[in-house]
Amino acid sequence: LGSPTQNPEAAKMEKFQSILRNVVFICFYFLTIRMFLISITQSSTFLFLQMAVVIFLSCLTAYRVTWATCAFISAVPMISGIQMIGWLPGAKLIEIGFASIFIVWLPKRILCEQRQLGESDYIDNLADIFSFVVLLSMVFVLASWAPVDFLIDCLWRLKVGNINDPLFTFDAAWIILQGIFLFRIFKIESKVNLKYNTIVAVFLIHAITIIGFSLSQWVFSIKPLYFQGLYGIYLPFSDIHSYASYTLSLFFIFIFLGFKNKKYVIRYANLLMAFLFLIFCIMTGSNSIILSFFSIALILVFKYFNKKAVMLVGLIISAFVLLLFYVPSHIDDSSVPIIKRYSRILLLTKLKETQMSRFILWERAWNMIKSYPLTGHGIGSYYRLSTFYQNPNEKQNSGWKENTHNYFLQIASEIGIIGLILFLLILITTLYVGIMSMTKIEENKSLVMGLVLGAISYMITMITGHPLLLSNQQFCFWFIIAAIGISSNMEYSILNTK
């Protein structure tokens, strides 16, 4: 591939990238071992079940990594749903499952197979730098909190901190890096041998699982273990906002798979699932899906449809705005929770009340960013420190703690603007790669279009939510990103799986 002699500067840069990659992977490896041991010891009641999961995924990883990762990611909604209805409470099956894969995979690749950690590309380098920033932020929190001997004792004793404790930085770093390293494993291992049908199968398993749990909650009025007591469908996940983020992504994925499929049975099955996901999104009562859905609809209208479609969307938006001023206020007294919820959007005074808490949290995040714009206050620190940065005139909610309800602001306040830029560059670059691949591989176009729009819709919901603070959402979201990232290398697989 070119001249046998390599530019000295390029060789130095490649060596630096290789060293950085090895450092972040090894550091995350030890962090994973720590979290694995904590998860096992914290939920000893389910030790037999957890060890069965460990043995199964470890053996499967040793045999074929892509099988293990796809089996794991397919099971995430099912495990989450089972635990949300009160079965196996406290069992750390999702955390232990991923840890088992990574703990076996890294030494298998480096020591047993003596292979490098993948070919370096722009997205991989961004992911490595972002991971390094997160790990450095974790060290910064610990070093500024306690003496070294005390920290060593905490590590040795596997001491765990709650969300108000600086030791929570371990958990926060591991949660955000779980998704990144799942993405990296897929990028490294799956560029050739992950087939189109495999990706679709994973999303199909997710779809069937979510539809089953959601219909059960809706039809039989099942109250999840951590029932919010307000409104909305969110099984198999733990809240309406994270549920809406991923379900809306699945809506776009399946609607494009449906429209482009030539087999009528598969087409209408996909469209039926897409329709159900749209209904479920509405039934969550999450405000963020309205912003996301309208944004994606406008993108599609301006790109693919004619002037009449643009005018139709304009009329719908105009009618919606008029409703804001003329809707009868008595619907706020409705006995139907979901109607009462959406009435707050139609009534400007109620909308202001519901969004005021978010503005307070965003102001705190902005104040934290201004104090440490480049480095942030440390991963996992927003919840613990936000009240120190509240507005002096903030009396009604003084001392109230909550995460930001804006994941981008949360990242910037914790790991700085540099960390936020790196995070956005990983996503934007991956989306660009996916869009470009659609011009090369016609057979892949419908899947990638659905994945890209699904990822964008998920990212829009992060403006008013923070779904990626949850491990199950990390894995679901980064699987979408990974599927986009490897789509440009999927031509062989598509042509050989028809």
Please state the CA-atom Rg, rounded to the nearest Å.
23 Å
Based on CA inertia axes, which overall geometry fits?
A: globular
Total of domains: 1
**Average of per-residue pLDDT values:** 82
What's the story with the biggest beta sheet?
A: none
Oligomer: single chain
Residue fraction in strands: under 5%
The total strand number stands at 0
What is the CA–CA distance across the termini?
A: 32 Å
User: Uncertain runs with pLDDT below 50, 5 residues or more?
Assistant: 326-331, 491-498
SS element count, helices: 19
Can you describe what's shown?
The chain starts with 7 loop residues before the first helix and ends with a helix. Residues 326-331 and 491-498 have low confidence and may be disordered. It is globular. It is mainly α and 498 residues long. α5 (122-143) runs antiparallel to α7 (168-189) and α13 (337-346) crosses α14 (348-371). 71% of the residues lie in helices and 0% in strands. The longest helix is centred in the first third of the chain and has 35 residues, at 8-42. It has one domain (8-304, 403-495). The protein has helices at 8-42, 47-63, 65-84, 93-112, 122-143, 148-156, 168-189, 196-220, 240-260, 264-284, 288-304, 307-326, 337-346, 348-371, 382-385, 407-438, 445-461, 471-485, 491-495.
